[in-house]
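Bit of a strange request maybe. I'm writing a small parser for structure token strings and I need a real example to test against, not something I typed by hand. Could someone generate the tokens for this chain?
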Amino acid sequence: YNDASVAQDIFDHIVEQAISHGLVDGTVLYTDSTHLKANANKGKYDLAQIEKSRSDYWAELDKAIDAERKLHGQNPLKEKTREPQVKQTKVSRADPDAGYMVREGKPKGFFYLDHRTVDGRLGIVTDTFATPANVHDSIVYLDRLDRQRDRFGFDVAAVGLDAGYATTGIARGLEERDILGVTGYRRPTSPRPGMMRKSAFTYEADADGYRCPEGQLLSYATTDRNGYKHYRSDPQVCRTCPLLASCTSNAKAERTLTRHVWQEARERTDAHRLTSWGKAIYKRRKETVERSFADAKQLHGHRYARFRSRTRVQTQCLLAAAAQNIKKIAMALTKPPKQAPA
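Reply from user aminoacidic:
Good idea to test on real output. This should exercise your parser:
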């Protein structure tokens, strides 16, 4: 119960069997997450200061930020500004490993997330990983993808992901691995009523700035520690602009726009969704990973964590996925051959 390695070995061995029978090829992988209700009363908790989880591509982002600042003649950020962010959160007294989940359209309380990847051919599960529910889907994704490539020797050509994985970090990571990513559409945050959207401004790569509807170029100012480049307008020009009231409420009459250092990779990945092959890949999500979760919840008790602690919940996820894989392998190998039409 204190180590999930035995369950992991069992799961891996079953995946290897599926590969040996030609039921898994690892060319297209689908990943998503689902929540399991923790074995903990949501009303019994303590408040604690917890470090926010960092993405698995944070070191690469630090290098990109330093390079961007150096390009513009700015000093590197001080080390102390890169310390993990700390936030106050609820910690369960019964199961401190569980995460308190607050998501729109989801129940509030203590939950775990099962991050699951399935192969696009028959929907056989190739990876499952449990985290507290307050760890975002995108944070552990690239590490788990690499784990499958290393462990099973997958030559992954494309991945299908929902909008929760539509981040610049994942887009960059997939391009570095020469994998085509097809992600769902993430609607940008709407401005306050009556205010101008960012889409009204046009990014000009040659000038490295944004052109406003009135023709002013918002020039580069700085790059923050989260990897966003800041572009600012000239207040002297903005004060006499007829669009000022709908553009900014800043006291200095200054408009600031941000652009991630890996934004180009994100835009290229977003474009995949609009291609014919991208639409075909994304359409299969509901037939693969979503169906796998539905089967787990309906037949394997996957709505609830049966144990306490992340390690034990990880074991539960691995064994449930292993059982589903055994059934799929058995059905695939015992199907009668299709008879030729009379």
